[in-house]
Amino acid sequence: MFTDDPVRAAKPATSMPLSEELLWRMDAYWRAANYLTVGQIYLQDNPLLEVPLERRHIKPRLLGHWGTTTGLNFIYVHLNRLIKAHDLDMIYVIGPGHGGPGLVAQAYLEGSYTEVYPDIERDRHGMRRLFRQFSWPYGVPSHVAPETPGSIHEGGELGYSLAHAYGAAFDNPDLIVACIVGDGEAETGALATSWHSNKFLNPARDGAVLPILHLNGYKIANPTLLARITPDELGELFRGYGYEPLFVEGDDPAQVHRQLAAALDKALARIHGIQQAARHATDGQAPARARWPMIVFRTPKGWTGPKVVDGLPVEGTWRAHQVPLKDFDDPAHVRLLEDWLLSYRPHELFDADGRLRPELAELAPTGRRRMGANPHANGGVLLQPLTLPHFRDHAVRLAAPGGLEVESTRVLGRYLREVMRLNAQAGNFRLFGPDETASNRLQDVFEVTSKAWMATIEPVDEHLSPQGRVMEVLSEHLCQGWLEGYLLTGRHGLFSCYEAFIHIIDSMFNQHAKWLKTTRHIPWRAPIASLNYLLSSHVWRQDHNGFSHQDPGFLDHVANKKADVVRIYLPPDANCLLSVADHCLRSRNYVNVIVAGKQPEWQWLDIDAAARHCSTGAGVWTWASTDEGRDPEVVMACAGDVPTLETLAAVTLLREYAPDLRVRVVNVVDLMVLQPPGEHPHALSDVDFDELFTRDKPVIFAFHGYPGLIHRLAYRRHNHDNFHVRGYREEGTTTTPFDMTVMNNLDRYQLALDAILRVPRLSALASDATDRYWATMERHRLYISEHGEDLPEVAQWRWTMG
Amino acid sequence: MFTDDPVRAAKPATSMPLSEELLWRMDAYWRAANYLTVGQIYLQDNPLLEVPLERRHIKPRLLGHWGTTTGLNFIYVHLNRLIKAHDLDMIYVIGPGHGGPGLVAQAYLEGSYTEVYPDIERDRHGMRRLFRQFSWPYGVPSHVAPETPGSIHEGGELGYSLAHAYGAAFDNPDLIVACIVGDGEAETGALATSWHSNKFLNPARDGAVLPILHLNGYKIANPTLLARITPDELGELFRGYGYEPLFVEGDDPAQVHRQLAAALDKALARIHGIQQAARHATDGQAPARARWPMIVFRTPKGWTGPKVVDGLPVEGTWRAHQVPLKDFDDPAHVRLLEDWLLSYRPHELFDADGRLRPELAELAPTGRRRMGANPHANGGVLLQPLTLPHFRDHAVRLAAPGGLEVESTRVLGRYLREVMRLNAQAGNFRLFGPDETASNRLQDVFEVTSKAWMATIEPVDEHLSPQGRVMEVLSEHLCQGWLEGYLLTGRHGLFSCYEAFIHIIDSMFNQHAKWLKTTRHIPWRAPIASLNYLLSSHVWRQDHNGFSHQDPGFLDHVANKKADVVRIYLPPDANCLLSVADHCLRSRNYVNVIVAGKQPEWQWLDIDAAARHCSTGAGVWTWASTDEGRDPEVVMACAGDVPTLETLAAVTLLREYAPDLRVRVVNVVDLMVLQPPGEHPHALSDVDFDELFTRDKPVIFAFHGYPGLIHRLAYRRHNHDNFHVRGYREEGTTTTPFDMTVMNNLDRYQLALDAILRVPRLSALASDATDRYWATMERHRLYISEHGEDLPEVAQWRWTMG
């Protein structure tokens, strides 16, 4: 199963690749980074300690996290050595993102920081500004952030570093992603399953991930689990996850320098060995899964910081997590801080102007090899547009609205197959899904690719291969994290998911949307491909799986984020879905959410009409309306495939109930058109909105999601008080598809009754229509409870107007 | 570290506790359960196959999941043997909840099903109804569900079984929770970290969890990861997680019966050994962490089902996941189904009336020992109310509104300390939090208890102990899952969390809220304690951690759930927080969300006023108003502690700007009062609402969360068009606390300006007020960018009216 036997490396590595001289310089470089870290947290002036430290040099508010940074800095210096020695293409992902000042310090030392922020010069003036800006209003955030050069990972919300790292490595054969996993972060669910990503990394095609568990022992207020199990258990855990763990451990910097250098040399040799074996296999065999190396780096929290403050131990405890010295009204603390800063011997490190001494500066890689300047960490600069097929080529051909039934997502699957085919050479497009690609009817992609799988493949398996470009694992966290890492390094993708379970990554979506929002204001960050969701197996067609599978609330969640980042599409049929998907795959820097059904459903628009409809986002369906383009008595609005079906069925009922009623049907594809102008770029003008929805007529709005969302988006519109929204009201179980709409009052009978009751002219009909409604409901309930399936008139309903 | 050395049990267990006769009967019982499972999925009639099977006996819609059920049934039969042999108090948690028909079959066989559903009699008529109701409209859901006797876990959304199991075991020393983890589910993040729960289980005080990994090899469409790594890796993984894995593997039932019986005997002996050692330690030592047993149960997916259908292998592949035979227009498939059913030899199992033969029926435990009737799985029947301290005893004493500043959550911490103390004996209350109890200022609880911790404890550690009742782990998933399991088995708890990161468990909240909603309609399910969230470190005071830590959207998410299940409280000060917390801890069957700050903040209400205010949910603060109880010109409304502060500061500004303006201040504690009557039980009547907010005056509403939520809740109210809501609009970074409100236009200056601009009488002031506003903003920006902290007039602001 493995390319070779695991090397058990439970003992610390002991070889010595470092000369004493190099060791001294690396240690000095580390001290420089630590000095700059402490300076950022504490100082607003006197950056080079040119005069004795005073209270006024210290910031009034002390924000930041000290505990993790020296470890991060230590590793960074060693990665620099490795990059330089082997001309590596390497980026870092820092799980403990609150170690922000360390990474800023490193980018500053290597020069990549000043290149993108020229006002932070590499001298005493720049150093003062560097210190002052940190966690300062209008300065830079306290975490590794989009503003930090070289980062694709914020790390404020813990748990996603390793998934991001693997996402970055996929299809980047020459890239090595060094991923620092915090031992606190390692307790999160997302991280705990991310270790298994190694079963999806193909050493022949993909780059490498080098996980480094930063085992400094403590979280905010507690020890970490992985620091308090036996070393044997720790080794078994990582070997069980399929890695070869290499252990580095200590608190004497010189010893740890030697150990880490040896471990990194060993890890790199192993990575290269695995890759060479996979890439130069002469027998034509598919590459086998490798036992990749990872490093356990056990050093004290707050290493090199104050050992004891006010009689309590700090270094090596959770007390070092944030700012270990705070009370500078106490002059003794000012002295402690000064001693701490001087312990790095800054005058050995920086010249009188505050420039890093040349013998240290030359330790850093140069140009794009610097981790702060590696283009993979600013993926937009590498982004190549997808080669897209003509979506019209995949159109459903229909003679008239309601002309045939198809599974919309299956049609999309054929289009995606072509996307996959056309970009196979470029290797920059992947599909992601939690075991649901086929369940969501996208299986035609398997005609041109497979599911990536490096674990054992049995003869009975289908569509599994190390070369596959469909990523399936039963973890929404991994799908999301991998895709984010893939996008942030300049590639494209789509995540298809059961609608209800996309909530599993609500919080990851938040962080990605925040990242995108922030990058809008960072000129050097080039736009990346949008994060595209296809939510299928949606609330209205999870009648078979039941209540736990029914939740359309992700739309509400998404709608809270900044309007210039999010887009929500509810294509009512396959042709609209094609048009929307094509648009989304071309877009940049957005999160696009597409909701579309996978069950056979009636088709409404030919491809030209669909493309027009989707480009305006909402429009009157004149062929379904009976107001002859003017002055309707009621507007039947709909958004979503099932609500559209029920609305059109209601329209046919209304023709029977109230033949002369002037009904206008409005379909909304792009939900953001409802927002007030100024709130969202897609918003309809008030004039256009009123043109569609009238200023005073009742609007019966059948909506895919929770009704509140429509009200929230449209409450400022003139006619809002006449909006009567039907949608999911949190009722469900295992039942029939139509009964789902009945349970939630979104069914055609309800919608038709709503229309009649809201049109004053029809008041004479109200009582009869209500009776008829209840009789129908009674018949429905009796029928399904007796027959276990829907009324024939519902199941066999066809569009008959026009 | 361990109570004894791990027993390496990589080889199948081979001892033989079963006589041939018992083996035959257990196998027959298993066949009976399998027969009933297939019957539920397929049959609407002819349950005993008394006539040859015909198409009309088969349901028209075939829903359900076959693949996992025979394994679940197999294990259940064996657990029954164990329970009976040792008089065990045992419940099960079934991760692969889609195996619902298996569990229903088991409850039916043991009689617990008929006890709660008397119309499903234990005879041919009952059996017919049992079959027919499954996945049938108005019948029972396809998954293990609240309707399933013996279950505390739905299992539709995968990943939470093991956390639920541990939650159930905490403080239940005599309980054993058998937890079946699906190998698909095992890929999820939540499950991957749940294995670490063993570091929190105290064998002296808590019950035991017996995890059984149901390794049937496939998900919906793919193999599972854990089935395709080497057995060595699998063993290392579970030993690395701290377990002693016992392996059971095969497809020959007789062999597997013997293996599983032996493995269970071994596991039980080990559990008892661990517990005895911990409970009867003579040296007074704290119990050590144990290496608990777990079982890897590797059997074919769809075991005993069709081996091949239409030429494709089914048993032992992913094709067995759902319904393996579907096309009954093909008479050959009808025959296949009949053969499949007959392969269980039903006439050996059931008598002519459809009753399970007595020699089989006697294999089941009796009474409350039956897993379908164990009261722990219907926790409400065991629920004892908490002994609560008088919350008034912990009140902040203040002479007048704005009389002092305190950290509200710290006050709550003192109250919770007393809750902890008063219920220590009962052992039925725990606090849960992801490493944030102290960070959220609840640390006074550590005066009476500690944090539960079974891993190594070092001298430097504080408040860690095997006896602790505060559950801290850096996994929101674990906190949530443990608490759910704890509540569902009849205990009480509170989960304190950073507001932004509670989104990590959005989806788990969904499932719990759905569970609670469903149980409202199940008479035999007794009410359980509410799930209480304390969200602190909230959006407005995460200025130091930055944008990633700022998200108030959980409120929107919660508000989507059924009104009879969810409650949202925004206490503006410590006394209100006490009153709300007391109310929540007494409540049943709700999800209560409390948002409260941890930073020093001004206090407004004495305890009597606070209790009155919280009981009405919203009210006029006359002491802050200048309308003398009548006819205000503007209503300044607020919900949340920071919005309340800004509103009151705005009121003092208004007194200066427009001294004769009649301002009414309305504070909302209970957000659900805003909903229209009929939508939520807490809703204010329209009369009361209008009384508070007027029917026609401008309402400047300062809200803690996204403004859209207020519009969504209040859009049907008369005065809604005059509501101008300020709240979080997704702007943030690392900055000062006050700048957070400025970035989002929630600051006092904005609110005061809003009021002036909305009162027509003040139009003459508008231009000057606007100028003044912008000048102030400019001064603010300059000051914080120069000084790094807020304007003195803001930082030192005090309430001066009244």
UniProtKB/TrEMBL annotation, chains A, B:
Family: Belongs to the XFP family.
CDD domains reported in the protein's UniProt record: TPP_PK (cd02011)
Class of this enzyme: lyase
GO biological process: carbohydrate metabolic process
E.C. code: 4.1.2.-
A Pfam family that the UniProt record links to this protein: XFP_N
A GO molecular-function descriptor: aldehyde-lyase activity
Residue ranges constituting the Xylulose 5-phosphate/Fructose 6-phosphate phosphoketolase N-terminal domain according to the UniProt record: 18-381
PROSITE patterns on file: PHOSPHOKETOLASE_1, PHOSPHOKETOLASE_2
Domain Xylulose 5-phosphate/Fructose 6-phosphate phosphoketolase C-terminal: 598-799
Cofactor(s) listed in the protein's UniProt record: thiamine diphosphate
Keyword Metal-binding carried by entry: no
Entry keyword set: Lyase, Thiamine pyrophosphate
Protein name: Probable phosphoketolase
Listed SUPFAM superfamilies: Thiamin diphosphate-binding fold (THDP-binding)
